[in-house]
Amino acid sequence: MSVTARAPTEEAPLTVRDLSVHIEGAPVVDGVTLDVRAGETVALVGESGCGKSMTALAVMGLLPPAAHVDGGTIRINGSDTTRQAEHAMQRLRGDKIAMIFQEPVSSLNPLMRVGAQIVEALLSHRRIDQQAARRAAIEMIDRVGIPDPETRFRQYPFELSGGMCQRVMIAIALICEPAILIADEPTTALDVTIQAQILDLMRALTDETGTALLLITHDMGVVADMADRVAVMYAGRIVETAPARALFARQRHPYTRLLLGTIPKVEGQGRTLLPTIEGVVPDMRELPVGCRFHPRCPLAGPRCRQEAPPLAAAPDDPAHESACWFADRVGEIA
Ligand SMILES: Nc1ncnc2c1ncn2[C@@H]1O[C@H](COP(=O)(O)OP(=O)(O)OP(=O)(O)O)[C@@H](O)[C@H]1O
Ligand code: SF4
Ligand SMILES: [Mg+2]
Question: Are 198 and 188 spatial neighbours (Cβ–Cβ below 8 Å)?
């Protein structure tokens, strides 16, 4: 884990300011601001449907056709890419910024050997000879935990298991050592040993090459292991953000506190989620007035049902922000 000192003179590789994305009138991402600095891991957490993947896809320029960015800015390595043309985004993707996608459904080309696909990803952005690219690809196949990399290099996707195809896609994302890596639930489809290996690999990448890692996960255990900072999303908004240690020590939003109650516990061979937070994430087309969390919040009062709280810094820690009228009372929640 790297140190999270602020570098005021140097812009973070990824900066997102006040980003909003609508799908058919629903504000699925609503005013999201976040930075990921070089060598830093920022975890983006929140329940299903709160807008984590849409935030990531907006950054990648890969939103589905129904979704539109309608406010804010995205800067990648100092350049505004918010409304960048597709051909320019294509040059950035895989080189400066890469993403490991949430859906394990393989986006590999079924007609091409896996090694050739990794080599192609490398050669499309780097000027190195075929032999060097081949060696780098085999090394990366090994680093993502696939045994017998020389043999696997020559195989087609159908000859590999689903988990191995997922790891090949991870290899493709990592082969150019991107300045920014977005990993959207990168390990959920993998078994526990491989999960740990992939997380180690991502940690090595941030430490050794200064990659800025935006790690999207449901698993607060992974957050505790990996993150320097955490941003908690609820119903399209960031409701709390802080250095990981500060957030685990003390929560300033009831949602975060309740999320921490869902840390997976080891039971027998697998990991099981504890009971989830009572109530459901609101329909993004019919959001509650006031604080969006109020229907589920144990601290909700009359003000919460009328006025939306702004994201504000804690009086004693400017790096710890939350959007709650009663941030000082969150510790009362059992
Ligand atoms: N292709 C789509 N068309 C229309 N609505 C979508 C589409 N994909 C996602 N949404 C909606 O956008 C909102 C945000 O979804 P998003 O995929 O960003 O959630 P998420 O936080 O990544 O959830 P999960 O943890 O389940 O991956 C949700 O309300 C979802 O229903
Ligand atoms: S503003 Fe009110 S409803 Fe919203 S999280 Fe804080 S206490 Fe709960
Ligand atoms: Mg998602």
Answer: no
User: What pLDDT sits at residue 138?
Assistant: 97
Q: What pLDDT is stored for residue 24 in this prediction?
A: 93
Asked whether 234 lines ligand 2 (CB < 6 A), one says no
Q: For the sheet containing 14-23, what is the strand order?
A: 26-36, 14-23, 67-76, 79-80
User: Is the distance from the beta carbon of residue 304 to the nearest atom of ligand 2 less than 6 Å?
Assistant: yes
Low-confidence ranges of the chain (pLDDT < 70): 1-9, 103-106, 262-275
Q: Could you say which ligand is closest to the alpha carbon of residue 101?
A: 3
Which ligand has the minimum distance to the alpha carbon of residue 288? 2
Half-sphere exposure for 129 (CA within 13 Å, toward CB): 2
Q: At 51, phi and psi to the nearest 5?
A: 110, 15
> 14-96+178-332, which class in CATH?
alpha beta
**CA 327, 333, 221, 282 torsion: positive or negative?**
negative
Residue 54 Cα: closest atom of ligand 1: 18
Q: Where in the chain is the domain with CATH 3.40.50.300?
A: 14-96+178-332
Closest residue CA from atom 18 of ligand 1: 51
Which residues 6+ apart lie within 8 Å of 89 measured at CB? Answer: 60, 61, 81
Q: What is the CA radius of gyration of the chain?
A: 20
Cα–Cα separations (whole angstroms), residue 57 to 54, 65, 71, 74, 89:
5, 11, 15, 12, 12
**By CB neighbour count within 10 A (0-12 exposed, 13-18 middle, 19+ buried), where does 244 fall?**
buried
Q: Please give the Cα distance from 2 to 251 (Å, whole number).
A: 22
What span, in angstroms and rounded, lies between the C-alpha atoms of 95 and 250?
A: 38
Neighbours of ion ligand 3 (CB under 5 A): 53, 102
Give the number of other Cβ atoms within 10 Å of residue 10's Cβ.
Answer: 10
- Whole-prediction pTM: 0.91
User: How much distance in Å is there from the Cα of 171 to the middle of ligand 1?
Assistant: 26
